[in-house]
C-alpha cells in the first residue's frame, strides 16, 4: 500500500445541484436512498443547503447554493447537476494534503478543522480533472451524524434497493490529457495502473475511446479515466465533454449483492436503463459459461454479463439522470470477477450510440 496517501475508503460523493431538496426526493424515490441528515437555513447555515443521502456504505451529499453568486450555483449553471467532490476517508487529512501537494497536486482547500460537541472533524482538498475536487476527510475524532452543522432527519425513511457500496468512479477528460491525469494520480497519490483499454478494444464503427483504470495500493479505490478517440461519429466521451463544459465525472458504479432484485426495484421506481437488443443474449451461455442467474431474467431486465479468469460479473447502465447527456450510474454485481465488463464494451457502446442518434449527437 502506498504511503504517499493512505486511504481507508470512499467517504462520500458531493453533488452540486440546482435544487437539493428536489434532488433528494429523486434519489430517495428513484434509487432508494434515505435522507439521514441535513444542513441549511434551519440549522444556521446561510450559504448552502445540503442533504446527506445514505444506502449501505454509500453516502451522497446533495448541495445547492442559496444565492445566485454562490460557487455551487455557478457550477450548476456551467455543468448542470454534477458530482463535484470525490471524498476519501483518510487517517490523517493534514498529512494527505501535505504529501499530495508536495508532489505536485494543486491545493483547493487547506487543512481545515471544525469542532462541535461531537468532536473534531478535519478535511482538506486538492484539484483533479475539470473542476472536480479530491477531498480528504478525517473522522477518527468525530462521532456526529456526518459533519458539524448537520442535524439528523428523525423522520427519515428509505426503502433501499440493495445498493451496498461505491465500486468505482469514472472520469472523462479531454483528448490528449488522459496520460497527464494517470501521472497525476500515480505521482501525487501513489495510485497504480490496474488495466488499460485502447481505441482498438473499445470501439464501434462510429466512435471509440481510450481508458486507464487507476487504483490505490489496497485496490479499494478505483478511478477509471476515459478520453475520446477519433471515429466516424462523435464519441460518447466527446458528447459528455461538450455538454459538461469540460472534464468531469461520467458515471459511478454502485455494487449490489443481488442485481436482479436491485434492478427490478429500480425499474419499478421509474429509473430508465440503456436498452440491450435481444440478440445480445443469443448463445450467451457459450460466451460466458455457467452462471447462477437465469438468462431469461437477465434478458428481461437488460442486464449484461461478462467473465474473466477470476469469475463473472453482471452490470447494467442507466440513462443519463440529467437533461444534459452527462452523468449516469452503473449497477454491478461481482461474482469473482474484478474486471470492468470488457466483453460488454461493444454492446454498451452501440446502446449509447442509439441514444446519441435519438439526441441528434452522433
TrEMBL record:
Belongs to the 4HPPD family. It comes from Stanieria cyanosphaera (strain ATCC 29371 / PCC 7437). Keywords: Dioxygenase, Iron, Metal-binding, Oxidoreductase, Repeat. Fe cation binds at residues 168, 251, 330. One of its GO terms (molecular function) is metal ion binding. This is 4-hydroxyphenylpyruvate dioxygenase. Its cofactor is Fe cation. GO terms for biological process: L-tyrosine catabolic process. Its EC number is 1.13.11.27. Binds 1 Fe cation per subunit.
Amino acid at each position: 500500500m502506498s504511503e504517499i496517501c493512505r486511504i481507508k475508503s470512499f467517504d462520500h460523493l458531493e453533488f452540486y445541484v440546482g435544487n437539493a431538496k428536489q434532488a433528494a426526493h429523486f434519489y430517495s424515490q428513484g434509487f432508494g436512498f434515505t435522507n439521514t441528515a441535513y444542513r441549511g437555513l434551519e440549522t444556521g447555515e446561510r450559504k448552502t443547503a445540503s442533504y446527506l443521502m445514505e444506502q449501505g456504505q454509500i453516502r451522497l451529499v446533495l448541495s445547492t447554493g442559496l444565492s445566485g453568486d454562490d460557487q455551487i450555483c455557478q457550477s450548476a449553471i456551467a455543468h448542470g447537476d454534477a458530482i463535484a467532490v470525490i471524498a476519501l476517508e483518510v487517517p490523517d487529512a493534514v498529512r494527505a494534503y501535505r504529501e499530495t501537494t508536495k508532489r505536485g497536486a494543486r491545493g483547493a482547500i487547506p487543512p481545515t478543522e471544525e469542532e462541535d460537541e461531537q468532536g473534531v472533524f478535519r478535511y482538506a482538498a486538492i484539484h483533479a480533472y475539470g473542476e472536480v475536487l479530491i477531498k480528504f476527510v478525517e473522522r477518527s475524532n468525530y462521532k456526529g451524524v456526518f459533519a458539524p452543522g448537520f442535524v439528523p432527519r428523525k423522520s427519515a425513511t428509505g426503502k433501499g434497493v440493495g445498493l451496498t457500496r461505491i465500486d468505482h468512479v469514472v472520469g472523462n477528460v479531454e483528448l490528449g490529457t488522459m496520460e497527464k491525469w494517470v501521472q497525476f494520480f500515480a505521482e501525487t497519490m501513489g495510485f497504480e495502473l490496474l488495466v488499460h483499454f485502447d481505441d482498438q478494444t473499445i470501439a464501434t464503427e462510429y466512435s471509440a475511446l481510450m481508458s486507464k483504470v487507476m487504483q490505490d495500493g489496497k485496490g479499494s479505490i478505483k478511478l477509471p479515466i476515459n478520453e475520446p478517440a477519433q471515429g466516424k461519429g462523435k464519441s460518447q466521451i466527446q458528447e459528455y465533454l461538450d455538454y459538461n463544459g469540460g472534464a468531469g465525472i461520467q458515471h459511478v458504479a454502485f455494487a449490489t449483492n443481488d442485481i436482479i432484485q436491485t434492478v427490478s426495484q429500480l425499474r419499478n421506481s421509474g429509473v430508465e436503463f440503456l436498452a440491450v437488443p435481444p440478440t445480445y443474449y443469443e448463445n450467451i451461455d457459450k460466451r460466458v459459461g455457467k452462471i447462477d442467474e437465469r438468462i431469461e431474467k437477465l434478458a428481461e431486465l437488460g442486464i449484461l454479463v461478462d467473465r474473466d479468469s477470476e469469475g463473472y460479473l453482471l452490470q447494467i447502465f442507466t440513462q443519463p439522470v440529467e437533461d444534459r447527456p452527462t452523468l449516469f450510474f452503473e449497477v454491478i454485481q461481482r461474482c469473482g470477477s474484478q474486471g470492468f465488463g470488457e466483453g460488454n464494451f461493444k454492446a454498451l457502446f452501440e446502446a449509447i450510440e442509439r441514444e446519441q442518434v435519438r439526441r441528434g449527437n452522433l
